[in-house]
Every structure is written in structure tokens, then in C-alpha cells.
Write a structure and sequence with these properties.
With about 300 residues, the protein is α/β, with parallel strands linked by helices. The protein is built from 11 helices and 9 strands.
Amino acid sequence: MTRHQTTIQVIGVPLDLGASRRGTDAGPSALRVAGLRAALRKMGYEVARDIDISVPQKETQERKVDGQSSARYKQEILQVCTDLANVAYATLEQGNFPLITGGDHSVAMGSVSATSHFYRETKQQEIGLIWFDAHGDMNTPESSPSGNIHGMPLAHLLGKGDQDLIDILAPGAKVKPENVVLIGVRDIDSNEQKIIRDAGIHVFTMRDIDEMGMAAVSREAIRLVGHNTAGFHLSFDLDGCDPSVIPGTGTTVQGGVNYREAHLLLELCAESQNMLAMDVVELNPFLDHKNVSAERAVLLIKSALGECIL
């Protein structure tokens, strides 16, 4: 995408039903307070009026687990992701760029489903997916030790898990394993390790980043997700960054991607001009220090959308 052609549609999804810790529902607001819209306009983008997806609060829900699924708040999350998918699909139909602000990572089941369905329907093409995360997000309701759906979205996008969550917007898997790259992973559940190995996706752990360097990892990831695809959806979980960079997230893991490495990945994504949509998720301002994580997230988003030093 190029800024002179594109209107950005910010879609806020204040969801925290997929996680154990409260607070990611305030993530979209924290990004607004940090000046996201003004920053995008200063870059030269047109920015449409924000859209917020309606999300029920935990305190209003009587049931935590669907009667036929071990996924907590499945029905509520399914509805939110379906609503998001419809809005994101309409955004793409209008020729605009969907920037989804979360919210926990469950939201990606809706956003990626929209990108996938749009390009399959209109271009008869698959999409690539870059999944930046400290975690694998490849549990299924059967393998998950917690039942928290924010640990399951990538599995469902690959067609593994609960059929209702798999079939958002269209039946079946939304991405092919060979078109998926997971970057920054360093905290995997024991049951999840085999699922990831068997899935056939490309994985760059923190050790790979240490050994190869972020530039090589990023370029190879962009090459992989761009091969025989319409482009790639970027799903950026802020906990992929080291807690010293992003303290305001509920699932911090030490030893993550540093500030400049994160910017380099995003700068190279922008340079490719092949990014179709973007999620920014797992921002929890209640765990933050004076909104510094949101302010840094805005700077990261700017890099992903083409901000450069010169």
C-alpha cells in the first residue's frame, strides 16, 4: 500500500473476553489518547471516522464456557469476531486499509477471516500472514490448559479447533500453512509444541532472531508470505516485544524483540508495499506506565505504514 492511495479505517475492538487478565478492552482508547489518528494524518493519510465493534463485558455474562466447547466465552467472542469480519470486509470493499486495534488476540480470527475472504472472492488469491507474538497462539479448545481463546486464534485460522470459530465469514481454514510465518515466539505450552511442529508453518523463534538478526528474519518472512499470494495480513501482538519496550501488556515474557528490532520488522513490511491489513493487539493500559506502551505502539504503527528516517 502507498499513503497517497489509501484511506485508513481504524476499527477498535475493546475485547478482553479471550484472556484471563482484565484490561485489554481499554487498548483502543489508550491508542487514541496516544494520538494515533493525528499521527496518521501527519503522515499524509486520510483517516476515516473510527468504527468500534460492540463487545459485551464479562460482568454481564452468566456463562463462561459454551456447553459444547471448552473455550471460555466462545459464543460472545464468536459474535464479536463475526461483527469485526463484516466491518473489515466492507472496509476492504471500499478500497480502504483496515487497522484493527485491540483488544486481545482473539480479534484476529475476525480480521484475518475478512482479509482472506475478500481476496479469495475478488482476486481468487490466497493471503500471507505474519504473526508477531511471544506465544504460539496455536492451542485448540482440547489442548488449551486455560480455555482462554486468545491462545487459540492462529490454530483456528489454520482450520484446527472449534468449527464455529474456524468458519467465521466463510467455511474452512483462512490461510495455508506455507503462507504463515510466526515471529518472536519464546513461550509455548507443552501441548502446543507438537501442534506447531505438525502445522507446517514457518517459525522464527527468539533464538533464530539472535542468530540470524532481525533484518534477515524479516526479509525471509516477507518473502515467504508474499510467494504466490495477494499480499500479507500483519497481526502484531505487542507482547512479542520485550517488556522493557512494552510493559503494558498482560502476557509479558522476558527476552523479547527490542525497540529497534521491532521497528525494523515493521519498516521492512512497509517497504514491501504488500501489507493488506494490520492488527495491533494485547495493549493493556492498566499495566502500563503513563501510557508509554500506547505511545510506543503508535510509533510502531507509523513504521508499519511507511514512516522512515529520511
